[in-house]
Specification:
Rossmann fold; 5-stranded parallel sheet; 6 helices; alpha/beta; globular
Length: 148
């Protein structure tokens, strides 16, 4: 954890918000960002409620500013799941246009359809394997384009 608030250290740094309750998956994303030299501040939240607090600057959380360019979102989380979070940000005019990539263990068609109906930019099935999965490479390429 940083001693200084990120906005003081990186006042104009572009960012990505990872909403993920699994520590291993969070570390995989962090390591992948380093490996692919993604030059964005990576923020993380354990569930949808924590993510909303970071986006809105509520409940004692400092707001991420500027807003993240992309949100990486798990579907199955405690307190507020990914579908509930996605529906909530799509109703908020300030947050509605942020591109969202789903990262989940769910390969169920209903989950994919619900996510697509809420305008996701990509759908990535876990386990996260940035080395060998063609879907992951395609998704990382799309993510990379969005972040440029």
């Amino acid at each position: 954890m940083c001693i200084f608030p990120p906005h003081l250290l990186f006042p104009l740094m572009r960012s990505v918000l990872l909403v993920e309750d699994d520590f291993f998956d969070t570390m995989t994303v962090k390591k992948s960002f380093e490996k692919f030299s993604v030059q964005h501040q990576l923020y993380s939240a354990f569930n949808g409620l924590e993510a909303l607090d970071l986006l809105r600057g509520q409940n004692g959380a400092e707001a991420i500013r500027p807003l993240p360019e992309v949100i990486l979102l798990d579907l199955n989380m405690p307190k507020m799941n990914g579908h509930e979070f996605l529906a909530e940000i799509r109703k908020d005019p300030e947050l509605a246009d942020i591109p969202v990539f789903i990262i989940t263990t769910s390969a169920m068609d209903v989950d994919r359809l619900n996510a697509q109906n809420l305008g996701v930019s990509g759908y990535i099935i876990k386990p996260l394997d940035f080395e060998t999965s063609p879907d992951m490479v395609d998704s990382m390429s799309l993510l990379e384009k969005l972040l440029k």
